[in-house]
Amino acid sequence: MTDYTKVQKGDRRAFGGYFLFEKRAIWYYSYGLKEGELRGKKITVFLDERLKVEEGYLSRTERDDAGTLETFFEVQHWRSTISVITDLDESGERIYNLLKSRAEIETMSDAFKNVLNADRAYMRDDYQMEGWMFINFVALVFYYRIHRLLADNSLLKKLESRFLRLSPLVSDSKALIVFLSRVILSIIRYYTHPCEL
Question: Which residue of 57, 94, 123, 166 pairs with 90 in a disulfide if CB–CB is 3.0 to 4.6 A?
């Protein structure tokens, strides 16, 4: 279904454009679907050279005989791409940010378990347990509201992700307040003195 012709040719002039994401160039192009059950939707193809990881594939091919060099040549053009089917009338950058936000949700679910240790609790009664879960939930809600505001205003690439990490959090309200204060102060500093960040 995805048309990789532009990727196969290797000429970036044929792409619709590029944007920077986490200090790397993401090239993209879009085209509409004219038939089938997805008629009216569009496919946006993103090219991210960091996704290639040829060395790993080739070393596995040599070591395990898991694939052949011919198989590598057959799939080489799409190994560094992500294709998204959407009906949104948005820029490639906006669609990519929405896609990455989805991945961030998965990451945050892991953080909820691994960083906040929210998959285990040592509470003595139901009230403590409810309070503990509420604090963890509020932390995630604030994180995603701030993340969405930054993404909607194209500020994610200006503010480094370190301001949005949950790692300073522990399962108490004092640490949550400190964390949120740091994030909010970083945003305020950006708006008042954008050149300092």
Answer: 94
Q: Name the residue with tokens 């790993």.
A: 56
Q: What is the pLDDT along the chain (197 residues), one digit of tens a residue?
A: 788 788 878 788 889 999 998 788 899 999 998 888 888 899 999 988 776 654 455 556 666 555 566 776 776 666 778 888 999 989 999 899 888 877 666 666 666 665 555 555 555 665 666 676 677 777 777 777 777 777 777 776 666 544 445 444 444 555 656 666 666 666 666 665 555 44
Nearest one of 95, 74, 76, 101 to 29, comparing CA atoms:
95
How many whole angstroms separate alpha carbon 118 and alpha carbon 137? Answer: 10
